Amino acid sequence: MTTTTETPHVNRWLVAIMGTVLQLVLGTIYAWSFFQKPMMTYGGWDNQQVAWIFSLSICFLGLAAAMGGVLLPKFGPRKLAIAGALLYALGWVIGGFALTTKNLPMLYIGFGVIGGIGLGLGYVTPVATAAKWFPDKKGFITGMVVMGFGFGALLMSKLIGPMIIDMCKTDGVVAWPTVFYYIAIVLGIPGLIAASIMQNPPAGYAPPGWHGSAGAAADSHDASLTPGDCIKSSTFALMWFIFFCNITAGIMFIGFQSPLIQDLFKLSDPTMDVAALAAAGGTLIAISSIFNGVGRFFWGGLSDKIGRVQAFRLILGSQFIVFLLMTQVTSPMIFGVLVCYVLLCYGGGFGTAPSFVLTVFGSKVMGVVYGVLLTAWAMGGVVGPQIAAYIKDNFKEGAANTTFLVGAGFLLAGVLVSLLLSNKQFAKKA
Does domain 12-203+213-418 have CATH number 1.25.10.10? Predict the structure, then answer.
């Protein structure tokens, strides 16, 4: 039962825009590959050790999102969103403190676990809340809100990160703990402002001039349908698996796209120094993050027209071909283009999933079911980066191609399973 007493008198577009801003702040986690090599150098750690920082943050993002979906009806979106913004900023603060002594376990707990919980609570809230305000534009608006998360890497890799690193550099040496402290402030303030705007629409809300035709399917489910009915169903299991496959394949590149393209540039031009290589990696993060963001908006809107399942089949199937093509690519530029397409589809999965849940299970259970679906993100956040890190540390020859083939395997599995799904509503069986 909802206990919140939030006033309903707010413009729905303000909720959507502030939800997008909050997602933009949280999405800066996707620029982690910008920090991958510097953290290895600073702490004397290997790929897998540093990758666990990112893996843990994504793992606890997914787990906390599931918890957030359950807590959302009880505490309301504003409290949950504020908690998420605070915990994510706190993760950066604890991470900075851990770096002062190069304490890797504390970095795991602070940035990975605590920061990850903040990410999860903050992520699920604006998605579920905005969807309630826009029953007439489900795919469009959820795609728009999660688009902000995709753009977060651009914000970090090309603006916040370089600016703060330059501020904290003395005689060429970067004070990494101070970098983390400043990032906490820069992200925390707008995150809290955006979070404070989150609120549910009043009971029985309908947009002006809307009579239910565009979203009738979302509200015509069995009134006795419970979140447990949905989560225990084979339909949910199939949705979870294809979502997991898309995430696992894509997140391999999010965590390692910068090192991967740096390796290709190093092979094509051995004269490039460390700074030039890092700049090239940062540029790829920035550009691909645009595709990650646009993909959420594009595929979410397209799924309104062609159906959620068909959208996922195209997302998975087209990437399978791209991953195979990557095994033959030696040009950094072509590689960058292909990575951008992968990120377009990776973001597309997140843009389509919320409206998929709404269409199949209904708005009544959306918050809880969507939150649990995001445990696929938690699992993919561990599996994808750790596979890529293990291959990079242990397969010096052909490491990249091995990674691409493994990713292609996940995508093929997702395509095959998607053939078992349809756009039909879930019907509870007696």
Answer: no
